[in-house]
Amino acid sequence: MSRPIAAWNPLDWPLTHGVVPYAVLAVGCAALLALAVSRAPHWWTRRLPAALVLAAGLTALVPVAVDDWWQPFPDSLPRKVVYWIGVALLGFCLAAFRLPAGRRRGRGAVVLAALLVLLMSSSQVNRYFDQYPTFRVLLAPWINPAAKLSSTPAAATVTVPPGRVLAEVWHRPAGLPAKGTISTAPIPGTKSGFKSRDAYIYLPPAYQATPRPLLPVLVLLPGQPGEPADWVNSGGLQAQLDGFAAAHDGLAPVVVVADQTGGPWNNPLCMDSRIAKSQTFLAQDVPDWVHAHLQTAAGRTAWSIGGLSLGGTCALQLAVNAPQVYGSFLDISGQDEPTLGSHAMTVNAAFGGDEAAFDAVDPLHVLARQRFPDTAAAFVVGASDKEYGPAQVKVFAAALKAGMKAKANTVPGGHDWHTFRAGLGDNLTWLAQQTGMIR
Questions:
Q1: Domains and CATH numbers, the chain
Q2: Per-residue pLDDT reduced to its tens digit, 102-118
């Protein structure tokens, strides 16, 4: 039996399992060993111990600097990630103590060895998060950049009678493309003043038909740190949606991957607060832009919002604070409350210490005082996610108590792209059912 052609393309070689990551691990370990061994005088008694102590001290400072001082994201660095950062630091510390004694050629070898240790550590961190499963995904921004969204003329639309779903009246026309399209477009913060990065838009094959079915909309949100392109590249968005469309005569939701943070290290909490009016952006500016530029279904029952990690928390927030816009939501590995790292820090930064103002929009408080019998919710978390797993249990229970039509499940993985990809793929059928696309 012949091997698939893709297997022979280096761009499709896996980076998280198989030969490549183990080869990188072996080469990196050999480079680290070479850096640790020397015939130089006083190496074993002075320089090596000094390098080890310095690397250990720098490694101990990493979580303090990131989690306590800088605080670029709400959750702490995983221990395994800190460990591999420490290995990289050890490589550079060993190299630094070897460089002064080496000749020019020897110094080049030392620098190369340190870079190989860094490559090994980066590879292991990537294996932990599974963000770049192949070279193709890693290099996607350069080898497969998305085009700008082009305007398309309005077309006649397919009418769905009351009591029917779109799939029951839609018939795939001859010549319909097999795949959808991915493009980018800026979404201005007309009402919110929010400055976002370009959104990514997936238009399924059926969108290219005439007459055009009025497809439901899924607003999808990335995590933090992150960007909308993450769902397209690391999340395999087009492959997942094209696969769904192939099984449903070209039907799939229109997906708008919006930017709710404005930058990789920003966290405006998806609220209207002193920080920004992120909620207004997602509840008004994004829907207004979709209605103005695309032909889609209208009304809350046809609109869903979903996301991963911080994006999952945001999806929950918008579903309870703007239920008139979003009738269903998908929360993948979200938190139990919006946070900048601690409750006190969040309330102070967003509302000047006003607990009542925070409680007015905090999803758990909203769920405790309101009922949402017409909202559908899906919660997904990785089976080995010890931090976000308990939060998902807590929020799921609150959603049920508030009358939501909620479901929850775990998938293999942790707080990583194994979980995020599965969380979306496993729920595409559910989303299509909630939004009137299929029965």
A1: 17-129 (no CATH), 157-434 (3.40.50.1820)
A2: 567 788 899 999 999 99
